[in-house]
Specification:
With 493 residues, the protein is mainly α. It has a single domain, classed as Growth Hormone, Chain: A (Up-down Bundle), CATH 1.20.1250. 71% of the residues lie in helices and 2% in strands. Strands 1-2 form a two-stranded antiparallel sheet. Strands 3-4 form a two-stranded antiparallel ribbon. Helix 2 runs antiparallel to helix 10. The longest helix is centred in the C-terminal third of the chain and has 64 residues. It starts with a helix and ends in a 9-residue tail after the last helix.
Length: 493
C-alpha cells in the first residue's frame, strides 16, 4: 500500500465510524474509484446495446419473419426467463469468480450469441427458425446474467452504504447510456448517418435491420478490453483499504465465503424475498414499456422511427430514467440515511397513478388522448420503473450481501425482475393478440395484410391495464418493509 494511503488511514480516515455518513476517503480514492466504475459502467452499458437491440427493430423483425405478437413475445421472454435463472445461479458463482471475470464471461458470451442470432434471421427458409431464435436468445439471456451480479459485487467493495443509493442512480445513467445508444444506433443504421472527421466525413449508408445484431457486439468487444485493463475488484487491489459497516479492521477483503454459506445466508433472509417480490413487479412494468413501446406507437399512433415523437422518446426514455434513478438514490442516501423502502414505496405509488391515467386516456374516459400525451405518460412510467430498478436491484442488494455475498444477493433479487419480464414478454404478447383491435377501411370493412390475415393493432387500454396491478403490488410490498422496519437501519429496507 502506498505510504500516502497508509498515512491517510493513520490520520483517522477509519477513526470515523463506518455507520457515520460523514466518513472521509483517503486522498486519490475518489479519483481511482471514478475510473473504476466509469469503465465498469461502459461495460454494462454495452450489455444493454446487445439486450435492447431486438425491441428497437421489433416491427422489421416481425414483418420480415412473419411473426405474431405472441411469437415475438416468446422470443423476448426466452431471454428474460433464461436471464432470471442465470441471475440466481451466476450470482452465486460470481461471489466465487469475482466480478471482473464474471462480467468478462458474460460479455464474450453475448457477443457470440448476438452475432449468431443476426445470422440466423437471414435463414428465412429454415424450418425450425422460430425455435432456433428462441434458443439463441435464451442462451444470450443466460450469459448476460453474469453482468449485473459482477457489477454489483465490484461496486459493493468500492462504495459504502450511505453512498450506494447515489451510486445506483449514477450507475443507472451508465446503463441508460446503452438504451440511448440502442435508440440512436437503430435509427442511424435504418436511415444512414455521417461521422465527421478532421478533413472529411465518413458516410454510413442505410443498412439492413439485422446489423443491430452485429454492430453492438463489436462495440462491446472494444469496451470489455478496456474494462479488463482498468477495473479492479477491490479498492485494496489499487492500494486502498476500506472497512465497511459489516466488516472489522482485520477482515480479509479477498477471503472467499463457501457457496453453501452464501446460499443459506441470503435465501434464509425474508427481506431478500420481499425485495425480490417487488422487483418482479418492476420487471413486468419495465419490460412492458421497453419491449412494446415501439410497436404501440407505430400501430396505435402511426409514429415510426423518423417521426419527431419517436426521435425524442428514444432520447427521453433513458435520459429521464437516469434522472429518476439518481434523484431516488440521493433521497435514499441523504434524507433516509440509507433506507430504500420508504423511497421505493413512493416510486411505486406514483407509477400506479401514471399507469391508471394512461389507461383512462386509452379507454376514452378522459378526453384529449394523443400520441404526445401518451408518450409523456410513458416517460413518467419509465422514470418510476427505472428508479425502483436501481434502488432495489442495486442499492438494496449491496446492503444485503456486503462485499462477500453481494453477487448472490443481487442475483436472487434481480432474477425475480426477469421472471416478471418473462410474463411481460410472452404473457403480454398473448394478451395483446387476444384483445387486439381490428383495423377497418373507410367503408368499415376489415383490412387485410399482405398475407391475407386481418390487420389488428395493440389496444392501449389492455397494455397499460396489464401493468397496473403490478405497480400497486410493488407499492404494498415496499410499504410493508418500510413500516415493519421503521426507525431501524436494517440492511435491505
Amino acid at each position: 500500500m502506498p505510504d500516502e494511503h497508509a498515512r491517510s488511514e493513520a490520520d483517522g480516515v477509519h477513526g470515523v465510524s463506518p455507520a457515520n455518513p460523514m466518513f472521509r476517503h483517503p486522498p486519490g480514492y475518489r479519483r481511482r474509484r471514478f475510473r473504476n466504475w466509469f469503465f465498469l459502467g461502459l461495460t454494462y452499458a454495452s450489455y444493454y446495446l446487445c439486450r435492447y437491440n431486438l425491441s428497437i427493430v421489433a416491427p422489421e423483425f416481425k414483418d420480415a419473419l412473419g411473426l405474431s405478437n405472441t411469437q415475438y413475445g416468446a422470443i423476448d421472454s426466452s431471454r428474460s426467463l433464461a436471464y432470471a435463472f442465470g441471475q440466481f445461479f451466476n450470482g452465486l458463482f460470481t461471489d466465487r469468480l469475482g466480478g471482473k471475470l464474471a462480467m468478462t464471461i458474460g460479455a464474450i458470451g453475448t457477443i457470440l450469441l448476438n452475432v449468431a442470432f443476426g445470422l440466423t434471421t437471414w435463414a428465412t427458409d429454415l424450418g425450425f427458425l422460430f425455435l432456433a431464435l428462441l434458443i439463441i436468445r435464451g442462451a444470450d439471456g443466460y450469459v448476460q446474467a453474469f453482468g449485473a451480479p459482477g457489477m454489483v459485487k465490484i461496486n459493493t467493495a468500492w462504495f459504502r452504504k450511505q453512498e450506494r443509493g447515489t451510486f445506483a442512480g449514477i450507475f443507472g445513467g451508465m446503463i441508460q447510456l446503452g438504451a440511448i445508444g440502442v435508440g440512436f444506433l437503430g435509427r442511424g443504421l435504418a436511415t444512414g448517418f455521417a461521422i465527421p472527421l478532421i478533413f472529411f466525413s465518413l458516410k454510413v449508408p442505410a443498412l439492413d435491420w439485422r446489423f443491430m445484431f452485429f454492430v453492438p457486439p463489436a462495440i462491446t468487444l472494444v469496451v470489455i478490453i478496456l474494462m479488463n485493463v482498468t477495473v479492479k475488484n477491490h479498492p485494496e487491489d489499487a492500494g486502498f483499504r476500506v472497512v465497511h459497516d459489516d466488516e472489522t479492521d482485520d477482515d480479509d477483503p479477498h477471503a472467499k465465503v463457501g457457496l453453501g454459506i452464501v446460499f443459506r445466508k441470503i435465501t434464509s433472509n425474508p427481506i431478500a424475498w420481499i425485495n425480490a417480490g417487488a422487483y418482479f413487479c418492476t420487471g413486468f412494468v419495465r419490460t412492458a414499456v421497453n419491449a412494446w413501446w415501439v410497436l404501440y406507437l407505430l400501430e396505435v399512433w402511426d409514429v415510426g422511427k423518423t417521426h419527431a415523437i419517436f426521435i425524442w422518446l428514444a432520447f427521453l426514455l433513458p435520459f429521464t430514467a437516469f434522472l429518476g434513478s439518481l434523484s431516488s438514490g440521493v433521497i435514499s442516501d441523504k434524507f433516509c440515511r440509507g433506507r430504500r423502502a420508504p423511497v421505493a414505496t413512493g416510486i411505486y405509488t406514483i407509477e400506479a397513478a401514471l399507469i391508471l391515467l394512461a389507461m383512462l386516456f386509452s379507454l376514452g374516459a378522459i378526453p384529449g388522448a394523443s400520441a404526445v400525451v401518451l408518450a409523456a405518460l410513458l416517460v413518467g412510467v419509465n422514470i418510476t420503473c427505472n428508479s425502483s430498478h436501481s434502488i432495489i436491484g442495486t442499492a438494496a442488494a449491496m446492503d444485503l450481501g456486503g462485499r462477500k455475498m453481494a453477487g448472490f444477493a443481487a442475483g436472487v433479487i434481480d432474477s425475480f425482475q426477469y421472471f416478471g419480464a418473462t410474463v411481460a414478454g410472452f404473457g403480454l404478447g398473448w394478451l395483446l393478440d387476444r384483445y387486439s383491435i381490428p383495423q377497418l377501411d373507410a367503408s368499415g370493412a376489415q383490412l387485410l395484410g399482405d398475407d391475407g390475415d386481418p390487420v389488428r393493432f395493440i389496444d392501449g387500454a389492455v397494455w397499460f391495464g396489464a401493468m397496473l396491478p403490478w405497480a400497486i403490488l410493488g407499492a404494498c410490498l415496499m410499504a410493508f418493509l418500510w413500516i415493519a422496519h421503521r426507525k431501524k437501519s436494517t440492511p435491505g429496507t
